[in-house]
Specification:
Number of strands: 20
Strand content: 15-25%
CATH topology of the largest domain: Rossmann fold
Helix content: 25-40%
Structural class: alpha/beta
Number of helices: 14
Shape: globular
Distance between the termini: 43 Å
CATH architecture of the largest domain: 3-Layer(aba) Sandwich
Number of domains: 3
Bound molecules: xanthosine-5'-monophosphate
CATH class of the largest domain: Alpha Beta
Length: 509
């Protein structure tokens, strides 16, 4: 495996992505993580990430030279290179007058290892302030650009390399090939880390950790918790109990369909709990979105708590926490600020004295999907749009009633089904319907109507952090609008949301 030491660059996660794409396992740790943490399973290579600081800043993260005792290949990227050079010889880095951004042609002086097979003139992406002015004696230049005499260096007789550009960004043409040269040819990784090998290793680890104890897992109907439950079930069979709660805020037929898939297709030991009355009672009279969220979260904890009240033998709580939830890129605030443990069912583990099991906490979302495929989870499940924990509770704007929730469920179902029918489901990142708290006048037959309006929202996005409204075909929107107004009694108007995020958000509440 490869250890990535994080010096705070916004691109650190990208380095991990690129290595994973090359089927090499890697982990990101803060630059100041103690070396002894890795002594039991030493890495085959170390990458020092970039970072926003100058080595001359007072609070600049400093490379711990102990890491060189591992005696494995090292690659410093941008600040990683500068911190390396600065640590060896303090006058090697020059404070920049002006920063260098953007593309440059790489002129290679040594094609023997890091740049094996890379063409001269290959485009690389620079983004740095300081640069190397004078190399430590033990190093030599292996590439330059028109403006930078030192674009890449190597140690004269050890496998230690540094690049001033960012091989991890897509704008660096041969970035993946350069990283591949480092991790496969130089560090000797085999590149056989796949979903299948992940499952094998993880099953062993879960068995070892859990022993004969019991594990409980809250299912949401989403990909992450489903993959986690299936994986744990493979490992420990019926020592696992899953809980799937109907909070009365799910999509049409979702509770029944998902429960059935869990039981019949994935053979998970799952207890379905219909708590919809409790949720809706607790939400009665509440219209503030944040208050709704809080009530839904707390009610979930109560229901979960009650469900296992008499099952004292449960020792672990399994969660579908993902890697992006765990790493915090700005690591030089100190190790304590680096890792935020993101609790899907906030407060539960502490309250119930449960230890956490988070088997996919080192994976990115698409890797979790691949693991799910490998585990035989149906494709229709794997590719599902995200669905928020508070569900329809934040899509019926204002106060909730069963009647309004039912109207929204019907409209939403028509929209989502139509997306599948027209092969548009996977063209959008998320799609939803919102019931607006306004009524408007319409005419149906010869009658005046005074009914609710529904807003449709579909977005394209990579990660939900930013999003654009999806440019769905007019004919498609016309058909969906027509069907909703004709089939959903109580809705006489449909609008399409054409706002991007930011400044709008994806959900309306
Ligand atoms: P926003 O509305 O913030 O949504 O643009 C971004 C993504 O997060 C989902 N979302 C939530 N998911 N609990 C969740 O589990 C929540 O309270 C919540 N609020 C929003 C939203 O559906 C979208 O995918």
């Amino acid at each position: 495996w490869i250890l990535i030491l994080d010096f705070g660059s916004q691109y650190t996660q990208l380095i991990a992505r690129r290595l994973r794409e090359l089927n090499v396992y890697c982990e990101i740790h803060p630059f100041n993580a103690p070396k002894k943490d890795f002594e039991e399973h030493p890495p085959k290579g170390i990458i020092l990430s970039g970072g926003p600081k100058s080595v001359y800043d007072e609070d600049a993260p400093v490379l711990n030279l102990n890491y060189f005792d591992f005696d494995v290949p090292v690659l410093g990227v941008c600040y990683g290179l500068q911190s390396l050079a600065h640590a060896i010889s303090p006058d090697s880095v020059e404070k920049a007058e002006k920063r260098e951004f953007g593309r440059a042609e790489l002129l290679i002086d040594d094609h023997s290892d890091l740049f094996r097979g890379i063409d001269d003139g290959s485009i690389v992406w620079m983004s740095h302030g300081d640069h190397i002015k004078k190399l430590p004696d033990t190093y030599e230049v292996i590439a330059h650009t028109k403006n930078a005499p030192v674009a890449a260096v190597k140690h004269k007789n050890k496998p230690i390399f540094g690049v001033q550009f960012h091989p991890e960004v897509v704008h660096t043409e041969d970035g993946a090939a350069i990283l591949k040269n480092f991790i496969i040819n130089i560090a000797g990784c085999t590149g056989d880390w796949t979903a299948a090998s992940f499952i094998e290793t993880e099953i062993k680890a879960i068995r070892e950790k859990v022993g004969k104890d019991k594990v409980i897992c809250g299912l949401s109907g989403g990909v992450d918790s489903t993959v986690v439950a299936t994986l744990i079930h493979e490992a420990i069979g019926d020592q696992l109990l899953c809980i799937f709660v109907d909070n009365g805020l799910l999509r049409k037929n979702e509770y029944e369909n998902v429960l059935q898939t869990y039981k019949d297709h994935l053979h998970l030991p799952v207890k379905g709990i219909d708590a919809s009355d409790l949720f809706l009672d607790n939400l009665k009279g509440v219209s503030d979105p944040e208050e709704k969220r809080k009530i839904i979260g707390n009610t979930f904890i109560d229901v979960f708590d009650k469900a296992i009240e008499n099952e004292k033998e449960y020792k672990y709580l399994a969660q579908g926490t993902l890697y992006p939830d765990v790493i915090e890129s700005v690591s030089f605030k100190g190790p304590s600020a680096t890792i935020k443990s993101h609790h899907n069912v906030g407060g539960l583990p502490e309250k119930m004295n449960l230890d956490l099991i988070e088997p996919v906490s080192e994976l990115f979302k698409d890797e979790v999907r691949n693991v799910g495929r490998e585990l035989g989870i149906p494709e229709k499940f794997i590719g599902r749009h995200p669905f928020p924990g508070p569900g329809m509770g934040i899509r019926v704007l204002g106060e909730l009633t069963r009647e309004k929730l039912n109207l929204l469920r019907e409209a939403d179902d028509i929209f989502i089904q139509s997306l599948w029918d027209h092969e548009l489901y996977h063209e959008v990142w998320q799609a939803l319907a919102v019931l607006l708290p306004v009524q408007s006048v319409g005419v149906m037959g010869d009658e005046r109507t005074y009914e609710y309006a529904v807003a449709l929202r579909a977005v394209t996005s990579l990660d939900g952090m930013t999003a654009d409204w999806a440019h769905l075909p007019y004919e498609f929107l016309a058909e969906v609008s027509n069907r909703i107004i004709n089939e959903v009694r109580g809705v006489n108007r449909v609008v399409y949301d054409v706002s991007s995020k930011p400044p709008a958000t994806i959900e309306w509440e």
